[in-house]
Amino acid sequence: MKHLILSILFLTSFAISAQEYKDEISVVQFSASFVKDSEINLSKLNECHVYTFYIEKNKKHFDAESIKYLPTILLFQNGKEIMRVETGISMKFPENTDKQIRKKIEELIGNKF
Amino acid sequence: MKKILLLLLLMSTSVNAQIFKDIFKYSTVFGSYTETSPLFTPEQYFVTQAGDVMNITPETSNDYTISFGIRKIARMDYENRENRFYDGSEQNMSLSSNIGSVKGLEYLFQFSKGRQQGRDFKSERYLIRYIANYWIAKVEMQHNGLINLDYKTADLRLRLPIGKKFSISAGGAVRTHLPYGYSPISDYLNDNNWWDLAYDYGFQDIGYYIDYDFDGQADEIDWYWLNEDGERVADTDLDFRKNDYTDIVTDYNERELDAIGILGTLSFVVGADYYYFRDKFWLHSWGNVFPKHQHIYGDEDYSYETFIGKDNWLDFNYGIVFGWNISKNLGIFTEHERTQFWDKNLVFTKVGINLKL
Question: Which among B165, B281, B351 is the nearest to A23, CB-wise?
Answer without folding.
Answer: B165
